[in-house]
Write a structure and sequence with these properties.
- The protein is 75% helix and 0% strand.
- The model has no long low-confidence stretch (mean pLDDT 87).
- It starts with 5 loop residues before the first helix and ends in a 6-residue tail after the last helix.
- The chain has one domain.
- The protein is elongated, with a radius of gyration of 18 Å.
- The protein is built from eight helices and no strands.
- The longest helix is centred in the last third of the chain and has 34 residues.
- Helix 5 runs antiparallel to helix 8 and helix 6 packs antiparallel against helix 7.
- It has 199 residues and is an all-alpha fold.
- This is Yip1 domain-containing protein.
- InterPro entries: Yip1_dom.
- Pfam families: Yip1.
Length: 199
């Protein structure tokens, strides 16, 4: 099953990382996992924007037109997938500095499984209250970072001390990627590609 590690990452993360390390599924397996998981935030955000409306705490709910929400959902889906692949590439590039010799598939596994809790936060968009989504988002981010710190020494076969520094470097790269995506979004919105609201 494509998502067979999903429950294990929540129920017993350390043991699940050992299972992932022992199996080392193919590049195709990791890719399918990412493609499926990235659908969750994209589809939930689309449904909320068109049918439920977002509440930011004051005023009426904010709705997007179906066409605008569709474009944003597709852009989000592509950005999420590209972000995971870029994070896997950066993790692979940095690995040699910390004495690890992983394949790109191994670092892609690391990036895809650690980003899974963050993508699952997309389910919170089905209750589109900004405060609620932010709280769930922070919890998802914290658990993703935790999974990264637990998984790096196991998957990269390096001591925990070096694994901690390596994981911290990967977190930094992830934050840089996030800033790049946000900056690109701001540039696109100011260039006339912003959302279209319904009245």
């Amino acid at each position: 099953m494509i998502l067979n590690h999903l429950w294990g990452l929540y129920a017993h993360p350390k043991e699940e990382w050992h299972t992932i390390d022992a199996r080392h599924e193919s590049f195709r397996y990791s890719m399918i996992h990412i493609l499926l998981i990235a659908l969750i935030p994209s589809l939930c955000a689309y449904y909320s924007a068109v049918h439920l409306g977002w509440s930011i705490g004051v005023g009426e709910r904010i709705f997007l037109t179906a066409e605008s929400a569709r474009l944003m959902a597709v852009a989000m889906y592509i950005a999420l997938i590209a972000g995971v692949f870029a994070l896997g590439l950066l993790a692979h590039w940095m690995a040699h500095t910390f004495g690890a010799e992983p394949t790109y598939t191994q670092t892609l596994e690391l990036a895809s499984y650690t980003s899974t809790p963050l993508f699952m936060v997309g389910l919170a968009a089905l209750y589109p209250e900004l405060w609620f989504v932010m709280m769930v988002g922070l919890a998802g981010l914290a658990y993703s970072v935790y999974l990264l710190y637990v998984g790096v020494p196991i998957l990269m076969h390096i001591p925990e001390e070096r694994g901690f520094i390596y994981a911290s470097s990967v977190v930094t790269c992830g934050l840089v990627l996030l800033v790049v995506v946000l900056a690109a979004t701001a540039i696109l919105w100011s260039s006339g590609f912003g959302p279209a609201f319904t009245h």
